[in-house]
Structures are given as C-alpha cells and as structure tokens.
Amino acid sequence: VLATIARLRPRLGGPLSLQVVGDGPLRGEHERLAQSLRVSELVTWHGWLDKASLLRLYQDANCFVNPSLYEGMPNTVLEAMACGLPVIASRIGGNEDLVEHGVTGFLIDLANESTFDEHLAILLGDPALALRLGQAGRERVLEQFSWRSVAQRYVQILGPHGK
User: Fold this and answer.
1) Tens-place pLDDT, residues 65-84
2) 156 phi, psi to nearest 5 deg
3) Alpha carbons within 13 A on the beta-carbon side of 15
4) Listed residue (119, 74, 69) closest to 98, CA to CA
5) Residue of higher predicted confidence among 9 and 87
6) If pLDDT is split at 50, 70 and 90, which confidence band does 161 have?
7) What DSSP string describes 140-151?
C-alpha cells in the first residue's frame, strides 16, 4: 500500500492520506519504508483503536484496503462494508467471500502492483462509483452477514426447534 501511495501521489494531485490501524512486529519496518518512499507525512499510524475511534475513521474514509496474504472471515472488511466503504482487498479466501469484484469493491492480485494502483486510482478519482460500490457493500452485509440474517440461516438449517 505504501508503494502504491508513492506511485499514485503525483497522478492524483489532490490530498491523499493513509490511515493505518493496528500494530505488530512489522510496524517499524513499514515506518522506515514510508520514510524511504517519502510518504511518511501522508501516513498516520494509529495503533489499536477503541470502537468509537475506529468508527470515526471508517466514516471519514473514502475506501478501505485489505492487502492480506491470508484471512479467515475478515471482520475489518465486514466493518468497512457495513459503514458503506468500497473495499479493495487481496484475492484470497475470506475476502472473496465478502467482496464482490466490481459490485462492492475490487479484488486484486497482490503480485500485480499496477492492478492495485489502477483500482485505487479509480476509487479515489470517481466518488460516484465509490459511493455506489460502498452502498452495495453495506446492503450485502445487512442482507447476508447481519446477526439477524445469520440467525435466520441457522433456523433454516436446524429447523424452528433446533433439530
């Protein structure tokens, strides 16, 4: 993501920022990479956030990026979609279960940097498309992943009396 920001910065021309939430053993390495790419001033390293602060970040964002190498059921992608954000996520299990390419966001191959750059530029350059994808993602989460819809599927599977 940092390299993508560095490559897109000259093309986009407008304000650009990256909000990184979470912490881990690679944070120092990523901070050094941001410095070497000369994008440090565009990145805010939040560490772990409480739910209210995280919600504010989702509400202020233009899109959500999840470039994971592996996932189960990524709660962060569900949260972002529930907040109406279009998602760019790596094409891996978990992400593929949530993000519908071209409908709720974009699934990308992490090995293909130009595809990631292209899709991020598309979302940042086309607010109407980003809004449409974000709304579709929110609808998908509400229809298929809300507590109510999950409970209804359990009832269908187990029957009304849990048998």
Assistant:
1) 999 988 888 999 999 999 99
2) -65, -40
3) 3
4) 74
5) 87
6) low
7) HHHHHTSHHHHH
Q: Which residues, at least 6 apart from 146, have a Cβ–Cβ distance to it below 8 Å? A: none
Letter string b/e over residues 96-110, b meaning 16 or more CB atoms within 10 A of that residue's CB:
eebbbeeebbbbbee
Write down the number of H helices and E strands in the chain: 8, 5
pLDDT at position 159: 74
- First-to-last C-alpha distance (Å) of the chain: 48
Which residue shows structure tokens 């440090």?
Answer: 40
pTM, entire model = 0.86
How far, in whole angstroms, is CA 136 from its chain's centroid?
A: 14
Distances (CA, A) of 107 to 19, 97, 104: 20, 11, 10
CA distance 87 to 95: 10
Contact criterion met (CB below 8 Å) for 47 and 14: no
Q: Cite the DSSP H helix spans in 40-146.
A: 51-60, 75-82, 95-98, 113-125, 127-144
The answer to whether 18 and 82 are in contact (CB under 8 A) is no
